[in-house]
Fold this sequence. Notes:
The complex is a heterodimer. By secondary structure, chain A is an all-alpha fold. Helix content of chain A is 82%, strand content 0%. Chain A is built from nine helices and no strands. Chain B contains three helices and five strands. Chain B has a single domain (4-120), classed as Dynein light chain 2a, cytoplasmic (Beta-Lactamase), CATH 3.30.450.
Amino acid sequence: MNECYIKSFIYLKTNIFGWIVIVIIMVNSSYFYGFEETLGPHVILSNLFWWTSLVLVIAAYKNRRIWNVGEMPWAYLFMTFLFFGIRELGHLTQSPMIGSIRYVFGIFSAIFMTSALIFIYMKTYKRKTISKNMSFIPLVLALIFPIFFIYLYFSGTQTENLKNIFSNIENILWIIGGSITVYTTYMLGTKSTGGFVNVFMFFQFAAIFAILWKFLGFIGSLGCPIPYSIREFLETMFGVFAIISMYVLERMLRNLSKRIS
Amino acid sequence: MTTKAELYLKALSELENSTGDIISTAIITHDGLIMASTKSDIMHRETFAAYGAAAFKRADETIEELTGENIDTLLYESRTNRVVTVRAGEYALLIVLTGKKVQMGMVLMNAQNTALKIKEL
């Protein structure tokens, strides 16, 4: 009887997941042959996912004393979702300048996501103390790009070129950062237990979709155009898995907080 | 008003006082999150909880495969330390890190009694 319940529950969960994917494909399908960036439903979905994820990070942060991985990993997780949310807001305008600035926020997000998971791994499973100097490395690294942007802007680089340069930098950083995240989440997932396995698994899925999304963007910039809708779909799935992982983490901390109060 | 976390901490303090050579104790969830823990200078709390829960989970899977039953107590030791993990109800685990000087029977008995107290809380 119990086994029957478990099977039906697994089936239901698989079904819900299947439905999410089908809905996203349906929503994106109206743009399926587009080669250009669109202001379609993908933008609404993406903004919804990333800003909701940010709210979930804030809710989880309230219970940080339960999962005390230090202030910096929490701060970097927060900044990952905040900056990606801002990046997605950039979709709402057609201005080429904002289009270029938006990639800088995408670069921030890639750096902070990678750093957050590296720090969580080092602190929780390697028992390494993250020194103050070390914890600021991602911030320093992230600061290079707006400075580079301002330098290029004032040295007379055309907005279109600026957009291409930063789009490519963002592609490369997400591919590198995503690959590192796949490794760290793999290491975290194999050492952890219970709900944390799901948190890191979904984070890994998110990283894999980020790599695919940016890899297609990168080869597109090298002269092999990929229908933008395929990239939009991958980006949306990136957001779906990010929000699931944050939801699982937040729910786990919230449940425990209730139990010990 | 006393919170559950404070009651858990009291139970851990009683366990530490009743048994010598205990390095650290904690009540953790099966996910590896800390519900309560005593201070320890040599052990990082989050690492202690995460690895403790992971070891218990693997041992539980092993014993379930071998005997079809769930694990209640897990004991493992190194040259200088011992770790005892006891199931304390549906959600919690009691984990105790001791030195080698301690009487193992006493630790096991006290840990199991504390686990019962935690379960009742």
